[in-house]
Amino acid sequence: MTEQNQANPDAENHEAQAEYPDQPQQDDDIEPTVESVVEAVLFASDEPLSVARLADIAETDIKHIRRYVEGLNEKYRNGNNAFRIEQIAGGYQMLTLSPYNHWLKKLLRVRSDSKLSAAALETLAIIAYKQPVMRADIEAIRGVAVGEMTRSLMYKGLVKIVGRAEVLGRPMLYGTTRKFLEVFGLNSLKDLPKVEELKKPPS
């Protein structure tokens, strides 16, 4: 009776190595585990995946996902791998580490419709830091009309209408989207650089 009730000290350590015996094997040397399934899904995904979505795909509990991610990142650090699993836009995504950007830029071709001009970046920055913000307030800061620029940012999926201001005429309020977080590698708006950090250092 004592032996039956005794907890197995290795049970939790082996949980991540739980296999999927009913899945067809195409390679006798590969035995999928919950942890490796989480890794494979994140590797294949081109967008952040929520903890709930990962748990659903990997057929495991939500509470285990973070432990698997931590375990995988520990392996990547120990193996000096060029990537990590990061929290982006409220989910997890596998990303290449920034020291490799120099070489990746030689490989990646940025789509023309994703390119942002200096004026577009300035408008987007104002919206990101001031949201929810009226178009009139954006124009007051920039000193030029931003109607067309705002529509362009909305077309690219970086900006959206988030409501209407409680002032005369009830003008629309603008804010950033989930795609904005993904494009700029942010988990939430709290991760935006502080305004003080953006100021030029004294010469």
Question: Summarize this, please?
Answer:
By secondary structure, the chain is of the alpha+beta class.
Order of helix and strand elements from N to C terminus:
HHHHHEEHHEHHEEHH
- In the CATH scheme, the class of the largest domain would be Mainly Alpha
DSSP strand count = 5
Identify low-pLDDT runs: 1-13
CATH topology of the largest domain, by name, is Arc Repressor Mutant, subunit A
Helix content: 40-55%
Major sheet attributes: 3 strands, antiparallel
Radius of gyration, whole Å: 23 Å
Q: What is the residue-averaged pLDDT? A: 83
Shape: elongated
Q: Assess the beta-strand content as a share of residues.
A: 5-15%
CATH superfamily of the largest domain: Winged helix-like DNA-binding domain superfamily/Winged helix DNA-binding domain
The domain count comes to 2
What class, by secondary structure content? alpha+beta
Number of H- or I-type helical stretches: 11
Q: How is the largest sheet built, in terms of strand order?
A: 3-5-4
Q: How far do the termini sit from each other?
A: 76 Å
Task: Give me the CATH architecture of the largest domain, please.
Answer: Orthogonal Bundle
